[in-house]
Write a structure and sequence with these properties.
The chain has two domains: about 1-80; about 90-205, Heat Shock Protein 90, CATH 3.30.565.10. Helix content is about 55%, strand content about 20%. The chain is built from five helices and five strands, in the order αααβαββαββ. Strands 1-2-3-5-4 form a five-stranded mixed sheet. The radius of gyration is 25 Å and the shape is rod-shaped.
């Protein structure tokens, strides 16, 4: 199940990145394609006026090809759609549905956050809560979800760490940390007295 979940998260991130790449390509190329098609259509009329029928047919064919290329690009962007837009609410829902009560505080307002970074934060929070459930029997779990102009940050703290557990941060968190570092974020863990703290920081925009 863990491998399937990781695959699903990775696949969704790939979809978001590919959609963004195609959207940028559409933004860069569509005006050029439409302008070229418009000029070719105008040339068809001019060529017909001087009885250049063969050249007019060639110009018309090229105009149709330009319009078809633009339509294909637009269609490609619309069809590469992730399962759902990873809204911030999907992250807070993880805390609401956790098996232990969580006191959640939200600071700041989310704005202009890359969709793939929201999805990565969702995956990281899910892994952090799984780690707590596996290695602790907490009486309290506190979480702070904070947004600034440049980063989004989640801090999760819990007590009740089992003393027999030698590794409080499992392989899942280490793997997630590597994924976050790849986009210039960070995932750190620490014991502060009897409290286990997980800190997740992601840039608002892609590096």
């Amino acid at each position: 199940m863990k491998l399937l979940s990781d695959y699903h998260d990775t696949d969704r991130l790939s979809q978001l990145k590919e959609r963004r790449r195609l959207a940028e390509q559409l933004h860069d190329n569509l005006p050029h394609e439409l302008t070229a098609a418009h000029l070719l259509v105008e040339s068809v009329g001019a060529l017909l006026d001087i009885d250049e029928t063969a050249r007019a047919r060639t110009a018309q064919k090229k105009a149709e090809e330009r319009l078809h290329a633009a339509l294909q690009l637009k269609t490609a962007v619309s069809t590469i759609e992730p399962d759902s837009d990873p809204d911030i609410r999907t992250i807070t829902d993880l805390f609401d549905r956790f098996i232990y009560p969580v006191t959640l505080t939200q600071k700041g307002a989310p704005s202009n956050i890359e969709a793939c970074h929201k999805q990565l934060m969702h995956a990281a929070v899910k892994e952090a809560l799984t780690n707590i459930a596996k290695h602790s029997v907490p009486r309290r779990v506190d979480a702070v979800l904070e947004f600034t102009g440049s980063i989004m940050k989640t801090r999760i703290e819990n007590d009740g760490v089992e003393t027999s557990t030698t590794e409080r941060a499992g392989n899942g968190l280490r793997y997630m940390g590597n994924r976050i570092e790849a986009v210039r974020g960070s995932l750190t863990t620490a014991m502060v007295g009897q409290i286990f703290r997980i800190m997740i920081i992601l840039p608002v925009e892609r590096a």
